[in-house]
Design brief:
By secondary structure, this protein is α/β, with parallel strands linked by helices. The protein is built from 24 helices and 26 strands. The longest helix has about 40 residues, at about 300-340.
Length: about 750
C-alpha cells in the first residue's frame, strides 16, 4: 500500500452546461467536464475562455487616474525630472520598463531606480527619496510598490517632491499621503477588476497616457502577471492571452534573448514564462541589484540584449546552485523537527542567502506540507531575516501577526510573508508558532489536499483530447491546469531517471501511457511491474522526431493493495529506508541489534511500523510465518541477505550416509585433515557435505572425534538419520532457500499473501 501525500477531492459540480450550449459550441465531453468542474457553465463565460474575448476595462475608472495624468503632463510641459521607482522582482522590472518607456515616448525627462533587496529592502526608501530630491527630481512614480510606504512618502512630499503611487499590493488600514494613488483596490473607487499585478497597473496607466500602446507592452504586462501569480481571470486573462500572442508573433528583443540563452525555440506559453522567463528575471534581484534585469528589458539592441541575457543566465544558474545547497541543509533540519512533532517548521542558520529563502521555504512546504519559515542568522547585526510560505489551512499573515511582539518587521498575505526579528527571539517564536498550530489542529484538519477536476478513463487520454484542453489556455492562479485522476493503471515498466536518479518514469495500462513524476525517483524502489496504481496529474503532449504521444505528469500516487517488493538482488539496497521512522528491520537472532527499529523473527512489531524489511534469512519458514501473521503492514521489502547458500548442494541421500558410515567402519580410525579429501573423492562429494554428515554422525553418537581424529563409537544406538536435529535444520534451510531465495517472485508473493490471509 502507498498512501497518497494529499487528500484527493473530486470536484462534484452542482450545475451543468446545457446540452444545447455544448452542441452549439461543439464542446467535447472532456472539455464540458472540465468547465463544469470550474463552475463555468454560461455560454458567454465559455466563449471568453475558448475565444479569448478582449476584456479591457476603462482605465478612467482607476483611482486618481485623472489627477495622475494631469500631474505627469504638467511635469513634461515644465521639463521636470521624473523618477520611476520600481521593485526587484519580475513584476517590478516589467512594470518599471513599461512606465519608463511610456514617459520617454511622451518626451519626459525620466530616470528609474530599483532598490537593492539587501541594503534597502522592499518599497520606498528614505535615503533613496532624499537622493532623488538632492538630484533635482520633483516627481516620483512608484511601480509595484508604495502602498505601505507611509513615512517615506510623507518625507518626500514634505520636501516638495510629489509621489504618485501605482501599486497592487494589499492596502493597510490607512493610505499613504501621496499626491495620487493608482490602485485597483482603492477603497474610494470601483475599478471592475481588483487583481492586476504591478505591470498590469503600469500597462493601464500607459493606456491612459498614450494614444497607441506598443504591442511589446502587452508582452511585458503578461510576464509580470504570470510571474507574480495573480488571478488569471477577467482582465488579467486578456492581458496574458494578448501578451503571449505578441511574443509568438514578434517576440521582443529582450524576451528573445532570454529564450536563446535558455536554448528554447518552441511555442511561448504561460509555462514558458513561469519556468524560463520569470525565474531568470527574478534571479538577478534575488542575488544582487535587479537593475541588470531592467536594463535587459529596456534594450532594443539585439547584441546588447544577448550580452545582458547571458549575464542574467549566469545569475539564474548561481541562484539554482544556492537554492540546492540551502535546501539540502534545510531538509536535514526539517527532518529532525518533524520527528519531534513540530507542525510549524522554523529553520534558521547563519550564511543562508536571504534572496532565495522564499524558494527554499516553498520546497520545504512541498516536502512536508507544513507552514515553513526560513531565516538567515546575522550575528553581526543581531537579527534574523527571511521568508515564510504556508499551506491553505494556515494564514501566514494571521499567525505571524499573532506573534508580532517577537518580530521587528513583517509583511505578507495568506500564503507568504517576509520578516526580520532579533536573534534572541527565534526560539520563543518557534515555540509560539507550534503552540498556535497545536491549537489550530484541534479544530482544523491540516492534511494537504488536491482538487481533482475530472476522473479519467484510459480511453480518454488521446492527442485530440489534450489538444482540446490546450484550447482552454492560459492556465494559472484561479484557473489552474486541469487535474485528472486515473485509477487502477497497471505498471508495465518503471525506472528512476535523471543525473541524480531523482525522477520517476513509468509506462502504464493497455496503452503503455508514459508517465513522469518529477523529484520522486525514490518511488522506483517502492513500486514494481504489474502493480495497479491510482494517479493524479496533468496531461501533456510529448513530441519526438515529429511523433506526438500523450504523456501524464504525475502529482501524486496511491496504491490500495499491500506491496511486496523484491530486493533479493545484490544490485538493490534499502539504505533509503534507514531513516524512515515507520520502517522495521527483521534480522537473524544471531545478529546483534543496533537500532530500536530492529526485531528478531517472531518478535511483536509495534503498530507504528507499517513497512517491514526482511533483511536476514530466517531459520525456518515458520519463523517468517509467525512474523507475517502478527503484523499490520503496507509494504514488505524482501532482502534475505545470507553469508552462504546450501540449496544447490542439497541434502546427502540416506544411501550416501550409509556409504560414508561403512567407509568409516572399514577405516576404524581416520585423520580428517590428511584423509578427509580421499574420502570425499571416494564418495564423490564436496568437503562441506562430508563435514555435514560427520556432524550428524557425531550428534547421533555414531562416531567420536578427538582433535581431528574420527573413530567409530563402540556401541552406537540404532537411530534413523532423519531424527537428527542437524538433518532437520538442513532440510528447513533448503526449504527456506528454495522459496525465499530462488523461487519465482510471483509464487513467493502468493505464498506471503496466503500467510497474511489474502484470498489471491
Amino acid at each position: 500500500m502507498i498512501k497518497s501525500k494529499y487528500n484527493w477531492n473530486l470536484n462534484n459540480p452542482t450545475e451543468y452546461i446545457s446540452d444545447s450550449i455544448a452542441q452549439r459550441l461543439k464542446l467535447s465531453p472532456i472539455i464540458k467536464k472540465i468547465l463544469e468542474s470550474k463552475h463555468i457553465i454560461e455560454e458567454e463565460d465559455i466563449q471568453r475562455i475558448l475565444n479569448g474575448v478582449d476584456i479591457n476595462h476603462d482605465c478612467s475608472l482607476l483611482s486618481d487616474i485623472d489627477k495622475t495624468i494631469e500631474r505627469i503632463n504638467q511635469a513634461i510641459d515644465k521639463n521636470e525630472r521624473i523618477l520611476v521607482y520600481g521593485d526587484y522582482d519580475a513584476d517590478g522590472v516589467t512594470s518599471t520598463t513599461i512606465l519608463v518607456h511610456t514617459l520617454q515616448k511622451l518626451g519626459a525627462q525620466v530616470g528609474w531606480y530599483i532598490p537593492n533587496r539587501f541594503t534597502e529592502g522592499y518599497g520606498p526608501n528614505e535615503l533613496a527619496f532624499q537622493n532623488a530630491y538632492d538630484e533635482g527630481i520633483s516627481l516620483i512614480i512608484t511601480v509595484d510598490n508604495g502602498i505601505q510606504g507611509h513615512a517615506e512618502i510623507k518625507m518626500a512630499q514634505d520636501l516638495g517632491v510629489d509621489v504618485i503611487v501605482t501599486d497592487h499590493h494589499e492596502i493597510g488600514r490607512t493610505l499613504p499621503e501621496a499626491y495620487a494613488i493608482v490602485h485597483p483596490m482603492h477603497p474610494e473607487f470601483d475599478y471592475p477588476f481588483k487583481y492586476l499585478c504591478g505591470a498590469g497597473v503600469a500597462y493601464k496607466l500607459a493606456q491612459a497616457l498614450l494614444e497607441n500602446v506598443p504591442n511589446y507592452f502587452k508582452a511585458y504586462a503578461a510576464i509580470g502577471t504570470i510571474a507574480d501569480l495573480v488571478s488569471l481571470t477577467d482582465e488579467n486573462r486578456s492581458i496574458v492571452q494578448q501578451g503571449l500572442k505578441v511574443m509568438n508573433d514578434s517576440c521582443p528583443v529582450a524576451v528573445k534573448a532570454l529564450l536563446n540563452q535558455a536554448s528554447y525555440n518552441d511555442e511561448i506559453t504561460e509555462e514558458t514564462i513561469g519556468f524560463i522567463i520569470g525565474p531568470r528575471l527574478n534571479a538577478v534581484g534575488r542575488l544582487e541589484d535587479a537593475s541588470l534585469a531592467a536594463e535587459l528589458l529596456m534594450s532594443d539592441s539585439v547584441d546588447e540584449a544577448e550580452f545582458l541575457a547571458e549575464q542574467v543566465g549566469h545569475f539564474n544558474q548561481e541562484r539554482k546552485d544556492i537554492v540546492a545547497q540551502i535546501t539540502e541543509e534545510a531538509l536535514a533540519m526539517a527532518e529532525d523537527y518533524v520527528s519531534q512533532g513540530h507542525q510549524f517548521l522554523l529553520l534558521a542558520k547563519e550564511d543562508w542567502h536571504e534572496g532565495v529563502l522564499g524558494i527554499v521555504a516553498s520546497k520545504i512546504v512541498e516536502t512536508y506540507s507544513l507552514p515553513t519559515l526560513i531565516l538567515n542568522i546575522d550575528y553581526e547585526q543581531n537579527h534574523a531575516k527571511g521568508s515564510a510560505r504556508s499551506i491553505e489551512q494556515v494564514s501566514m499573515f494571521e499567525i505571524l501577526n499573532a506573534h508580532q511582539d517577537l518580530i521587528s518587521k513583517f509583511g505578507g498575505h495568506h500564503m507568504a510573508a517576509g520578516m526580520t526579528m532579533d536573534i534572541d527571539n527565534v526560539e520563543a517564536l518557534r515555540d509560539g508558532l507550534n503552540e498556535w498550530m497545536a491549537r489550530l489542529s484541534e479544530t482544523t484538519s491540516l492534511d494537504p489536499s488536491k482538487k481533482i477536476d475530472v476522473l479519467l478513463n484510459e480511453a480518454d487520454i488521446t492527442i485530440k483530447n489534450i489538444k482540446d484542453i490546450h484550447k482552454l489556455r492560459p492556465f494559472g492562479t484561479d484557473f489552474n491546469s486541469p487535474l485528472f485522476e486515473i485509477q487502477n493503471m497497471t505498471i508495465n515498466s518503471l525506472k528512476a531517471i535523471g543525473k541524480e536518479q531523482n525522477h520517476l518514469k513509468m509506462t502504464l495500462g493497455d496503452s503503455n501511457l508514459p508517465a513522469l513524476f518529477w523529484q520522486n525517483g525514490a518511488y522506483a524502489t517502492q513500486l514494481d511491474n504489474g502493480q495497479p496504481v491510482n494517479l493524479i496529474g496533468n496531461l501533456q503532449i510529448n513530441e519526438w522526431n515529429g511523433n506526438q504521444t500523450p504523456q501524464f505528469i504525475v502529482q501524486d500516487i496511491a496504491m490500495d493493495t499491500m506491496q511486496i517488493l523484491d530486493y533479493r538482488s545484490k544490485s538493490k539496497n534499502t539504505h533509503f529506508l534507514n531513516n524512515d521512522h515507520t520502517t522495521a528491520f527483521v534480522i537473524h537472532s544471531k545478529v546483534q541489534k543496533s537500532n530500536e527499529n530492529e526485531f528478531y523473527y517472531g518478535e511483536v512489531i509495534p503498530a507504528e511500523y507499517d513497512k517491514i524489511v526482511f533483511r536476514d534469512l530466517p531459520n525456518t519458514l515458520d519463523e517468517l510465518k509467525s512474523t507475517l501473521q502478527q503484523t499490520e503492514i503496507s509494504q514488505i521489502y524482501l532482502v534475505f541477505q545470507h553469508k552462504m547458500s546450501i540449496y544447490f548442494e542439497g541434502m546427502p541421500s540416506i544411501n550416501l550416509f550409509k556409504q560414508c558410515y561403512k567407509a568409516l567402519i572399514n577405516k576404524k580410525e581416520m585423520n580428517l585433515a590428511t584423509e578427509g579429501m580421499m574420502l570425499c573423492d571416494f564418495l564423490n562429494i564436496k568437503a562441506n557435505s562430508l563435514k555435514f554428515m560427520l556432524k550428524v554422525f557425531l550428534e547421533l553418537g555414531f562416531i567420536n572425534e578427538d582433535d581431528g581424529i574420527i573413530t567409530i563409537a563402540s556401541q552406537p544406538s540404532k537411530q534413523d538419520i532423519e531424527t537428527s536435529q542437524l538433518y532437520q535444520a538442513r532440510l528447513s534451510r533448503i526449504e527456506v532457500e528454495k522459496l525465499l531465495l530462488y523461487d519465482d517472485f510471483n509464487h513467493l508473493k502468493l505464498w506471503i499473501k496466503t500467510q497474511l490471509g489474502y484470498s489471491n
